[in-house]
Amino acid sequence: MKKLELHWKILIGMVAGIAFALALTNTSWGPGIIGDYVKPFGTIFINSLKLIAIPLILAALIKGITDLRDISSLSKMGLRTIVAYIITTVVAVSIGLAVVSIVKPGGSIAEDTRTELIEAYGGDAESKRQAAAMQKDAGPLQALIDLVPSNIFEAASSNRNMLQVIFFAVFFGIALILIPEEKSKTVKDFFDGLNEVILKMVDLIMLAAPYGVFALMAALVVEAPSADLFAALGWYAFCVVLGLALMLVFYMTLVKIFTGRSPQFFQSGIAPAQLLAFSTSSSAATLPVTMERVTEHMGVEEEVSSFVLPIGATINMDGTSLYQAVAAVFIAQAFGMDLSFGTQLGIIATATLASIGSAAVPGAGMVMLVGVLGYAGIPEAGLALIFAVDRPLDMCRTIINVSGDATVSMLVAKSQGKLGEPSVKNWDDHYEEVK
Ligand code: ASP
After folding, report:
1. What is the domain count for the chain?
2. Which of 89, 128, 280, 281 has most ligand 1 atoms within 8 Å of its beta carbon, as the pocket-test mutant?
3. Does residue 1 sit within a domain?
4. Beta carbons within 8 Å of 61's beta carbon, 6+ residues apart
């Protein structure tokens, strides 16, 4: 009998987790059992992925840069990567603005639903505002200062400092290229080997993915808000999801035009990473899997993927920027505000920057949304309006964040002549081998 492909196994795990939790939610003991005995396995699964994110960035980037062998191809690739990331983000915000302006979801929120939501979620929204205020107190160049760590071990001790680790790895890689080969060889071989070990760890963790997502989805279902709230925010959620779906179509079109690869090739290559992004709401936790899929299943050579993807996971968040645009305009509509064309252009700029600044962890996009609201003069109290549905939308936007990184890695690889055939054609044999 033909074995199921990995993404189907993960999908079955997700659906089974939801069904299991739904069957138990109405019992008095079910949610407790899920919280105490099922959720921990989801947490262990996410932790095992996060565990390898920092070593993966270090090993992959250093290996990637030294494989390039010269600084000029590094700067060429770096420039292409950044330009592609900025263009896709601006397209994402524009799609978000277009959808929310056409559908006008804010107009359909009744006055008392608005008051109810603000009362119910005012406190939660306040904590996001405070988190944002802490970031705002800093000077205009704080982001630049934050890029350079004063201690690499301290930087590497938190997944929130990925940009600092990336900075160190790029700096280290450049220095490694510049020293004589007989001196650099041992160091380079060490990072090559380390990279292989970590990719193998990803394979091993992926064997547990269907069970991990089962636990994650079951825990999410028992913690989900009531269906009534979902209904009240239905049009808003619809706009975000529609925008995200259009973005996916945009990626597939780009891939088809620039690399000739079909949408089906793209989807079946990246699907397991997308499903994990959905289950974990974290592009950082998904990074090891994105890396493995893009390199082994989508034909991007390692020296490109190991440079483009860690940077993308940290700064390229098309799903997040699209959501920030939709959310900002939705809140403005709900408060009866009209946004001028100039303000909307400003939203494109601020949402682009806010998505770059968002950490690749659950809920980060909402903290950075505060800055977008502040810029456009939209009441920050409006965050409470969207709080109830933020987690499911976070799950969806993280899929797009990860897909955007994969797309750009294919485009950059193509432009550098580094897009080949996938090294693993039959996924099942690959995972069987691991077992
Ligand atoms: N959860 C998103 C990510 O990790 C960020 C966000 O939009 O909150 O990519």
Report:
1. 1
2. 281
3. no
4. 166, 169, 170, 173, 306, 307, 310
Q: Which atom of ligand 1 is nearest to the CA of 364?
A: 8
Quick one: tokens of 292?
């493995």
Structure tokens of 273?
A: 């990473």
Q: In which domain, by residue range, is 308 found?
A: 6-434
- Ligand 1 atom closest to the Cα of residue 313 is 9
Q: How far is it, in rounded angstroms, from Cα 57 to Cα 48?
A: 15
Q: What angle do CA 115, 116, 117 make, to 5 degrees?
A: 95
Distance, in Å, from the CA atom of 239 to the CA atom of 241, rounded to the nearest integer, reads 6
Is 423 inside any structural domain? yes
Query: What CA–CA distance (Å, rounded) separates 365 from 267?
Result: 25
| CA 205 / ligand 1 centre spacing (Å) | 22
CA–CA dist 117, 378 (Å, integer): 17
Residue type at 313 in one-letter notation: A
Which residues' Cβ are closer than 6 Å to ligand 1?
281-283, 317, 320, 358, 360-365, 394, 397-398, 401
User: The CATH number of the domain where 277 resides is what?
Assistant: 1.10.3860
CA of 327 to the centre of ligand 1 (A): 14
Domain membership flag for residue 383:
yes
Q: Which residues of the chain have pLDDT under 70?
A: 1-2, 134-140, 225-230, 425-435
Distance from the alpha carbon of residue 227 to the mean position of ligand 1, in angstroms: 23
Q: Which tens digit of pLDDT belongs to each residue from 41-88?
A: 999 998 998 898 889 889 988 988 888 778 888 899 999 999 999 999
Amino acid, single-letter form, for residue 205: I
Q: Cβ–Cβ contacts within 10 Å for residue 372, how many?
A: 26
> Which residue puts its alpha carbon closest to atom 1 of ligand 1?
362
The whole-angstrom separation of Cα 24 and Cα 40 is 17
The percent helix, strand, coil of the chain (3-state, each to 5) is: 85, 0, 15
Q: How far is the CA of 22 from the centre of ligand 1 (A)?
A: 26
Which residue's CA is the closest to the ligand 1 atom numbered 7?
Answer: 365
- Burial environment of residue 120 by CB neighbours within 10 A (0 to 12, 13 to 18, 19 or more): middle
Hunting for tokens 């350079």 — which residue is that? Answer: 148
pLDDT digits (tens, 9 = 90+) for 241-255: 999 999 999 999 999
Give the whole-angstrom CA distance, residue 300 versus residue 29.
48
Residue 247 CA to residue 251 CA, distance in Å, equals 6
